[in-house]
Structure formats: C-alpha cells, structure tokens
Design goal:
Elements lengths: L1 H17 L19 E6 L12 E3 L13 E3 L4 E6 L2 E8 L2 E10 L7 E12 L4 E6 L7 E11 L5 E10 L4 E10 L4 E14 L20 E2 H4 L4 E9 L5 E9 L2 E7 L10 E2 L10 E10 L5 E12 H4 L1 E8 L6 E2 L5 E3 L9 E5 L2 H4 L2 E5 L5 E4 L5 E5 L1 H4 L5 E6 L5 E6 L3 E3 L2 E3 L2 E6 L4 E8 L13 E8 L7 E7 L4 E7 L3 E2 L6 E5 L11 E5 L6 E7 L4 E2 L2 E2 L2 E2 L9 E2 L3 E4 L3 E2 L5 E4 L12 E10 L7 E3 L2 E6 L1
Antiparallel strand pairs: 1-2, 1-12, 3-6, 4-5, 5-12, 6-11, 7-10, 7-12, 8-11, 9-10, 13-35, 14-15, 15-16, 16-17, 18-19, 19-20, 20-21, 20-22, 23-24, 24-25, 25-26, 27-28, 28-31, 29-30, 31-32, 33-34, 34-35, 36-49, 37-38, 38-46, 39-44, 39-45, 39-47, 40-41, 42-43, 47-48, 47-49
Length: 622
C-alpha cells in the first residue's frame, strides 16, 4: 500500500514538472503514459549540441527509431539558430532561398482504429519570408479527416499554428512537412514543436444521431419502479466481454444507500451493493462515473463504477467509492476509495472520470452547485479547478461526464433557465476538455415528463455510454418529485468524417422561437467561403447509404454525411471561421423535437477540386 501511494505521488509530481512543457490548449491525453496508444513529443530546440533531440517525450514501447535526428529529413540550408528575435533556439535559415523540414512520426498500423493527431509549433518569418506546414497526403495509407487549423499571433513576432485532425484508419506512420522560403533579408524558422498522437477505436461518430434525441430503443424507465421503491439519483452503464449491457443505479431505500444492477431490459439482477461503512451522507451517491482499466495489450481488463458521496456535514470530506462491475458478483473495491477535502461548493455534487489525468493514474472531476469543477487525483489531492469566471462552467451542475474519445466534458444542470419552452431545469452543456472553455453546444433532457417541479423535473446524474465506436449515448437521471426517471439521449452534436473544419452552434438553445440561433464552422484557415446544408437524416440520400465517399467525384478526402434538403447563402470566412444565421420559427404543436443534420461545403483553393465537405452537426430542434 505504501509503495502504491509513493508511486501515485511520484506520478503526480512528474505530471506537474511536465506541465511546463505543455502545448497551448493541450489534448487531455498529453503526456498520458497509461497505454500503448499515445505519443507525446516536444522540441524547444535549445540544445546546441543536439537540437533535434526532443526536450520531453512520453512514448509507447514500440516507438522506433528512438526520437531524435533520425526522425528529421531537412534540406541542407536548415540549421540550428541560437536566437531568433530574442527567443533562444530554433531551426531554420537566414537569407534568400527555399528550405524544407520533414518529420516522420512512428505508429502501429491498425485498420480498426483512428488516430487523433495534434501538431503545434511557433513559426517566425521576417521580410516576406514564409513557413507553410502540412500533414503529408497519403491516400493509400489513410485519409485526413476533420482538419482543424488555427493560428495565434504571439507578442515576439512568432505565429503559433495548431493542426488537429483524425487520420482514418490508424496508419503505420505519418509525415509532417514544413516548406520555408525567404528573401535576402529574411529569417525563417520554427520553434516549440509539439506532436500528440492518440489512437482509439473511434470512427468520428460517423453514424452519430442528433444530440438530444431520445433513444426509444434503450432503457428509458421509472427508476423507482425498477429498484422496488428506491429514491434514485444517478445511473451508469457497462458492457462486458460478451457485449451484454448492465445498468447501475445509485439509490436509497429502507435498507440504506445501495448500488443497484439492472440488466438490459431494466430488471434487477443480483443483490444490491451497500456503500462502504462510514460513507453515509445526506443523499447517498449523487452521481456515478465508469472507469475502464485496460491490459497491456489493449484488452478491457476491468470496469469500475465510482460514486461520489458528500460527507462534509459529518466530517468535512467528500468520498468516492468504487464497485468492480467486471466481477461475477459486483463487489466494493476498498483500495480504490478516494477521500478529498478539496471540494468547496455546495451539493449535490456531480462526478466525471478521465483515465488521462494525474500522469496516467486517472483523475476525478467533482462538480458543485456554484459551478466549480474540482479535479483530484486517486490520492484525493487537488490537481486543478474550473469555475464560471475563468472557464465558463454553468452553475447548478448535478451530473457530469467525460468523453474519452473526444476529450469533451458534458454537464447536466438543474439551475432554472427561462427559454422559449418555459422555465427548464434539465439543461445540458458541452465543454471543451482541451481549452477547458465552454462550447456553445446545448441540449436538454426529456421535457415531456410531467412533474410538479416543472417540465421534465430537475437534472440529477449524468454519464456517457459508448457501447461501441459508432454509438454515443447520454444517461440522464431526471428527478420528477416522487420518483426519478432514466432518459437515454442520442448524440453527439459533432459527427461524420468530413475533410475540413469543425461544425458548431451558438446563439442559445436550438429551440423553435429562437431567432438568434446560428450554425458555425471553425478551423478552415485557408478557405474562402462555405455553404451550409440542412437535412433530416444521416442514413441515406436518394436511396444511397450514408456516409458517401466523394472521391468518386474527385473530392478524395471528403464524405457526404447528411441528406441535404435545403441550403443557405454562401458565407465568407474571417480568420478561418464562418457562421450562418438560422432563425427558428415560433413553436407549434406539429413541429417540436425535430432532429436535423447539418454539413458545410467548403470552398478552399488548396484542396483538390477546390471544394471539400466539413464535419457534420446534428441536433434536435426543440
């Protein structure tokens, strides 16, 4: 036990050291060392003796050759520069001419996986010089999907470029090319190069459905009835090796606080698991989160269901207990219990889990009613916080979830909100786990459930459930007053393997009567304009199954992911971003809770045919 505690402390200490060598808005898996599927490399080029040796690295065992000069193929005029405009260490050249830097990043090819690739670097180009970067096109190995490119002007004359994309399928390697050009008085160079690759069984949610659409084929049920009268607050789901789904429900009955297990049909199975002694609190477990533990080869070894319990009124602590959901009979795992004093805001509390946190040991995000999100490690130590002022987190969060595939957080809030549909307390929000800033993507749970507390009652627990790479589900627990109900929603909003840019929304909830609602596209720095298309399905177009590979008409890395029904006028880009106003008409009885699917046609002179499709978007119009 002492050795485990020492290892945990050492890992967290290492994570804090590496924090200084972290890209701007890093992916959540940056410096993650808990699997063989993640690479993190950083060069600051400050080592005069060996500038191409990485400054920091977190690598899987198969990575070859060892990172360093052998990864680079540079033109003869590219050299180490001791100082560029006051910034030490860079590689490039001075004077007229053209040069190139190529970097080959190793990988393990896998047709069943995709690679999330992030590249970030600072470029300096004076006196009409230029630096242009690109992930090499290699159609025989992979297709570059959902390319998101952004730039940021830095104070010292450098420009920071960030490239984020999905490579499908996961290739054996990928090459990053820089083209440098300069005039007689130019200095052109790159500095602070970050490479992050993360390989997952994830298909870009190409078959994802409209965010907020109720999944009628899943388990939507009265939790009070399902648990023989328990007052229930949260739910989660797991899938075993045979593909069987189990639901886990936190509830309280005459026997005390317990975790109930339901089968896929909603029937109780096995004996409820009592919480550990000393975990008693006012409400029991207020939210649940699932942690998946993987064997060295990548196979799923164990699934743990965690519950958060607020004991501060009794002893000043918040406890997180664990249940082994993989065991033949569900049992508590006392060694996984987490005790923390870092939470300060009022309850009820929400809980999300990220396996990437604490240097690969996993971390917990505990939300409170004030909108503060407290991240703690497995030893209960404070790692970070988010709050409304700095991070735009909403107040009233009762349920929280983290999506391992995309790195996004989902919040479920009971804070009253006046909308076109009346005052609701079942709002959901999507929060970017890279920047830790809010996205304008919103959803609501089932507002048609009658309750004295208002339409749909109030929000309680939330968890994300991905039964396979092509499915995304939100498990929402809604308090209806005398009972609670589980609602399963489809999603996510962003889905589909377009070539350029990320689809988004802004202007409030996508509800009829909202004249300010807009659909956005970001990350298309080289594009000129785009046309938004709207459809009502993403399964077929004119009898042709979707998604449709558009290489048949020369658009070799684009897919059509919606059946386009209507289009909007051409919009011109500004700094890689564009928006289309979609004023939604007043609500009627006929049109409510309508799923819509969105995709942009992007005009970009740098791609084949000058056109490419974007990632798709899908939402319910309430």
């Amino acid at each position: 036990m002492k050795r485990n505690a020492l290892f945990a402390a050492s890992a967290i200490a290492l994570a804090s050291v590496l924090q200084a060598q972290t890209p701007s808005e890093p992916p959540p898996w940056w410096n993650y060392n808990g699997s063989e599927d993640t690479v993190s490399l950083f060069w600051d080029f400050n080592n005069a003796a060996n500038p191409l040796a990485p400054t920091s690295q977190v690598l899987p065992t198969w990575f070859s050759p060892p990172p360093g000069p052998s990864m680079f193929t540079n033109s003869a005029n590219v050299v180490w520069l001791a100082n560029v405009n006051g910034q030490p260490g860079a590689i490039g050249f001075t004077g007229a001419g053209a040069g190139s830097i190529s970097l080959l990043v190793d990988n393990q090819a896998d047709q069943t996986k995709s690679k999330r690739l992030m590249v970030q670097f600072d470029a300096f180009a004076s006196n009409a010089g230029s630096v242009v970067s690109e992930i090499e096109k290699s159609l025989q190995d992979y297709k570059r999907k959902i390319i998101d490119e952004s730039v940021e002007q830095l104070a010292n004359g450098y420009v920071r470029t960030t490239l984020d994309m999905l490579l499908v399928p996961q290739p054996d390697a990928e090459q990053l090319d820089f083209a440098l050009s300069g005039t007689a008085l130019s200095t052109v160079a790159i500095d602070n190069l970050y490479i992050s690759t993360h390989c997952v069984k994830y298909d870009g949610d190409k078959f994802g459905k409209a965010l907020g659409e109720i999944d009628a084929t899943s388990l939507n049920l009265d939790l009070g009835l399902a648990t023989a009268g328990a007052l229930c607050t949260a739910a989660a789901a797991t899938v075993d090796a045979q593909g069987l789904v189990s639901y886990w429900v936190a509830g309280r009955n005459s026997a005390g606080d317990q975790l109930f297990k339901l089968d896929a049909a909603g029937s109780l199975t096995g004996a409820p698991v009592p919480y550990p002694q000393g975990i008693a609190s006012l409400e029991g477990a207020t939210d649940l989160a699932v942690a998946s533990v993987y064997a060295p080869g990548g196979a799923l070894a164990q699934q743990l269901v965690y519950g958060v319990v607020d004991r501060r009124a009794a002893n000043g602590t918040v406890a997180i207990f664990a249940v082994d959901a993989t065991a033949p009979t569900a049992v508590l795992v006392p060694a996984r219990t987490v005790i923390t004093t870092a939470v300060t805001g009022p309850g009820p509390l929400g809980l999300a889990y990220s396996r990437y946190g604490a240097g690969g040991l996993g971390s917990f995000f505990i939300t409170d009613q004030a909108g503060t999100v407290t991240e703690v490690g497995p030893n209960g130590a404070l790692l970070s916080t988010m709050n409304p002022a700095a991070n735009g987190t909403p107040t009233g969060i009762t349920g929280a979830a983290f999506d391992d595939c995309t790195g996004d957080f989902y919040w479920f809030s009971q804070a009253p909100r006046v909308t076109q549909l009346g005052t609701l307390r079942i709002h959901g929000y999507v929060h970017d786990g890279w920047s830790r800033q809010p996205t304008p993507i919103e959803w609501i749970a089932n507002r048609n459930l009658p309750s004295p507390l208002g339409p749909g009652g109030t929000a309680r627990g939330l968890e994300i459930f991905r039964p396979n790479a092509s499915e995304f589900r939100l498990l929402c627990v809604q308090n209806l007053g005398t009972t609670s109900r589980l609602t399963v929603l489809k999603g996510p909003f962003q889905g589909g393997l377009g070539h350029l840019g990320r689809c988004g929304m802004r202007g409030g909830m996508p509800a009829f009567g909202n004249a300010a609602w807009q659909v956005t596209l970001s990350g298309c720095r080289r594009a000129l304009g785009a046309i938004l298309y709207l459809g009502t399905n993403n399964t077929n177009s004119g009898g042709v199954p979707l998604p449709l590979d558009l290489s048949l008409i020369g658009m070799d890395e684009s897919d059509l992911v919606i059946d386009p029904v209507t289009s909007f006028p051409l919009q011109l880009f500004a700094n890689g971003n564009v928006a289309q106003s979609v004023p939604l008409p007043p609500p009627t009885i006929v049109f409510q809770d309508v799923p819509v699917y969105l995709q942009w046609l992007v005009l970009d002179p740098t791609v084949v045919t000058g056109m490419a499709t974007s990632q798709g978007g899908a939402t319910v119009l309430y």
